[in-house]
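User: Structure please.
Assistant: Input sequence and predicted structure:
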Amino acid sequence: MTSIRPRQSTIPAMRPYLLVLLLAAASVSAQLAGQPPGGQQKAKVSAGPISVPITVREQYLGRSGTKTVVKFILTASKGELASAIQAQPRIYSFTLAGEAKGSDDKVAESFRVPIDVDLSSAGAERPLQASFLRSLAPGHYNVQFRLEGVAGRMVGITTIPIDVPAMQAEFSAADAGVDGGGLPSAAAVILESENREVVSPAATNLVKILAPTKEVPVGLIRIECTVNPPVTRVDFYLDEKKILGRTRPPYTVELDLGKIPKKQTLKAVGFDAKGNFVDADAWAINEREARLAVRILELPHKPDSDKTEIKVAVQSIAGGVAKSLKLFLDDKMVKDWAAPPYTAEVSQAAMKTATLMRATAIDEQGKEFSDIKFLKGESRFVSSVEVNLVELNVSVFDSEGRFRTGLKKEDFTVLEDGQPQELKAFEYSESLPLSLGVVIDGSGSMQSSMPLVHQAASEFIQKLVREKDQGFVMEFREAPTLLAAMTKSQADLVRAVAETRAQGGTALYDSVVMALYQFRSVPGKKAIVILTDGKDNHSWTDYDTLRRYARAARVPVYFIGLDISFLEVGLKGKMNEMAADTGAEAFFVKNAAGLPEVYKRIESELRSQYFLTYETTSKKGESEFRTVEVKMRDAKLKAKTIRGYFP
């Protein structure tokens, strides 16, 4: 049995419960008996004379958003379970279903988890163990578990009480454990994605610009800033124009101040590993006649907030010391400080009606030094710190459906929520490195197709992946397995494709999540190509959760459906929908002989695309969807890209 090694600092003592499952071949009717005290509860099911005890435990692994991640662990005797159901197949499939009700008796969370149990005689003395994850808001719950066999027949039921604590430590996918190939579960990946870094309001100087050793009025100057966790990336702006981004130390920037001395402002804006804004600082250039330099910084808007966070940077020049600092909207003081950090939350309604914002510092000699920002109606935001870089893979077709190449930046117009966006970069994909994910269905129904699958997928990789490109290969059955991690070795990728085998179930949705997860820190041009022949029957992830995750990841997901019945309208519809959401396409072929043509089509598209980037001006919150549309100057051309995204 695999040992469990949770983080001791974040997991309260585990309390075991006893779930008694009564199994029978006939239909069952359940009636819960009174629950004994002392942490153990027994469920009496009128289903026959045989009972199998199963221990249920819970672990609290950390915070996911505002909720706590709970890991439920079920342990049973392999020998007793095999004897009870007298199973003929070696692998027996169950479904663990249930729901968690809060103290108000309303359902807070429901679940359906597929569980495959190896009931062969080998290792009959060893216990069987199954686990799954859910996130629950802190509070008291009664959690009902139902074990269902073939055709949804219930073979056991019980209810246990739990008290979910609030957790300070952030949940990481690795906290729930990884498989033999080092992969976390899809559930863990989804729950990890809900996290946002929690930075104490009292935290200061997480990003701090250092005074240059020698300040010059013109020419080149090198400036460095110190960075503290959780900051992992710093973007530098000179008078509101982004000039550079750094993702590792040293966090430095070299500026060309020109030939004529002029006053300018350098800003350093810090982000965490997930791209969330954390802190910012500013530095005044060429204010040598002043003893203090004051700069107002408007920080990125927090979702679902009617306030704007303001930070004031105060810089000592020639030994000047700020004794006090005051912030004004017109003539009304909204905040005063005796010492840093100089941060404040200002009502957006007040900013909308004001004409200007002023920050005034007073030095030890009583002299005042100020910075003023004019507030212009709907454009009232103090500064334009651009925090969201959006990357688009764009395919362009002529009226006959052929890829159109050789276009220029001026031929494209990008709209987000109907508003034109300024393109920051424009590249033709042929010149860009590609990060490619090849995902292959290894379920049992793929057995007869595997030889042709190996050949077609290998040729696809050999033609598409060049020296500057990289990729990974993933296989999925009841769970995804990473056969080749992200690598530049074409030979390793081809070898991994040859290792795919056909047996077991189909965890399609979980596999898409895990494939997208491989790109979490990969910039630039990306794509996933997924080959499958069947409907998902083994995933933790439901379709709606997967779709939202894919929209946030913004990676094109191509599907190849192999011999999928015309009756599977729902499955085909979901493949088409997700491909369209992500700017890709879904293909359907009757047999494996059609795979080379489809792979060739995908290869041609990936090599014919354009790569566009822009910095969104949207003020929408993190939970609000943003639509994206690309229009062409030539009305005869049609562009294809993502439908939109969640930030």
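The chain has four domains: 8-193, 207-374, 389-429+613-645, 432-610.
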